Amino acid sequence: MRDDPDPAPKTQRGRASRDRLVEVAARAVVARGIHQLRLDEVLSAAGSSKSQMYHYFQDRDGLVEAAVTYRCAEVLDRLAAVFESVGSLGELASVLTAFADEYAEHLAGCPIGTLASELTSGPEPARRVVVDAFASWESFLARALTRIRDAGELRSDADPSTLATGLLAALEGGMFLSQVRRDATPLRVALTAGLGYVHGFRQELD
Amino acid sequence: MRDDPDPAPKTQRGRASRDRLVEVAARAVVARGIHQLRLDEVLSAAGSSKSQMYHYFQDRDGLVEAAVTYRCAEVLDRLAAVFESVGSLGELASVLTAFADEYAEHLAGCPIGTLASELTSGPEPARRVVVDAFASWESFLARALTRIRDAGELRSDADPSTLATGLLAALEGGMFLSQVRRDATPLRVALTAGLGYVHGFRQELD
DNA sequence: CTAGCATTGGACCGAATGGTCCACTGCGCC
DNA sequence: GGCGCAGTGGACCATTCGGTCCAATGCTAG
To answer: Which of A142, A174, B5, B88 could form a disulfide with A160 if both were Cys (CB 3.0 to 4.6 A apart)?
Structure first.
């Protein structure tokens, strides 16, 4: 049981310092990626110093983990809000289309996926954080699909979890290919395919 | 026009040395990833030395590019052979299922996708190599789909290129999620979804 | 006021690693 | 048989960067 020996701040001042450090590190991770995160850089940007960092974190990996956690929470908040509003197939389609439109403006890769691929051979604790983040995202989709099914738009034999997995795979694959190709088309096509997959389980009216 | 100033070997001996270097580097890239490739390590594994490397390559990036090119060619050879044999929807499904079965044994990420994501912010020449590799892969799929369409299994309004993009996105997303989750399920689900997408364009018999 | 702990600054260290350099070797050619 | 270039060995250099350390500085309770 390797418990987290990272000591929590014990004063307001300490809390503020630590928070600022994590936030700056998270921005750096987003901007340049995990393995390009430089301690000196983060510390100077945060107006902090080595001793502060090693006071609150075991080592670099500890800071990275905190930054990844922070960033994932940020992204998940947003995703939760977006998908919680979905209660019909039409809403699902429009939300996903809006998602693609927004993505088309930067084509920077999935905010969670990028972290995940940088952590595949990385420190296990941080890796687990992104694995959980994906699970959360998938659950948002699954819950939306459950609502859609319960509203009678999907057949009762449609499994929301499986549909969510398929939809998420389409999104990830689409975002990834769009990033590589620097062109939003793959994401849009993948989205169409993914929605088509879900529509295959639509409840036929008769 | 930054031409490639990397000098070609001028003797058999030189050619052999350079080839060996590239091959060893390619293996190292596959095993540990691009940014974990260590010159000293590759050189000793290849029984080579710094002077040889810098004799044939401008710098580390030059070797990486050669290794990536080598590796992509290797993978594409295999993919070409596999998909060239596809001439019907049934064959497409069985080839993709076999693909998933094989992937399930390592879950190590798409051999090209992994390189691509490591190169998104990397040196442009190497990046272009993987972009082209993806384009080739997609064209293998598109050609198979064209044959399937021409054989009358897909409607004439089905666009093989678009279908190929959708299918590739499903594959990439599926492989990626399976790698992250360390579980083959997402790839299998994504494959089902992707094939369903293609089947949506099936020519109806009547 | 002062002991004591949290917090902080920043000099310093050492390993890792890409890149440079020069001397040496092999070999084909005249 | 020695000139000259391709090829080679490997010591050496410079830098980057994570991590260590200790002295200095708030702060707060008694």
So the answer is: A142
